[in-house]
Amino acid sequence: MSDVLEYLFFTRAIADQFAKALEERGLPYQEEIEAVQAAIVFKVPEEAAINAWDALDDLYDELAIADQALLEVSVEDEMAGSAAGIYLQLANGQQTIAQVDPDVVNRILSVLSLEEFNQFVDTLVKSVEQPDESAICQRG
Predict the structure, then answer these.
(1) What is the pTM assigned to this prediction?
(2) Are 95 and 8 within 8 A, CB to CB?
(3) Which residues pair with 9 in a beta bridge?
(4) Per DSSP, what are the bridge partners of residue 4?
């Protein structure tokens, strides 16, 4: 597939819901398992999804929240309630999860919205991937 939309999930139950929605819409897709994190990736040809982009994005946003919640429950079960995961989107298109203390995340989210927190995390990731050695006062 050349131009594709990619949708990534970490739990089979949520991925199956997305696959069912694709099938109900008659959209072709490829399902792959991402090697590093064993994430489930759906690749949908852009041209096939052109009339369903908004609906797919809305559905993905909704399912991604459920997917993250299930993943966090899974991590908590494995770590006896002592871990949470933050998704990090890398410039090369890969995603990874940073395991963090859930108490710290809860404290951060008590003063920042999820959107503000995500913007902050994205800024950190970009700064690590593309270091800027200029003085902070020289940046525009």
Answers:
(1) 0.53
(2) yes
(3) 40
(4) 45
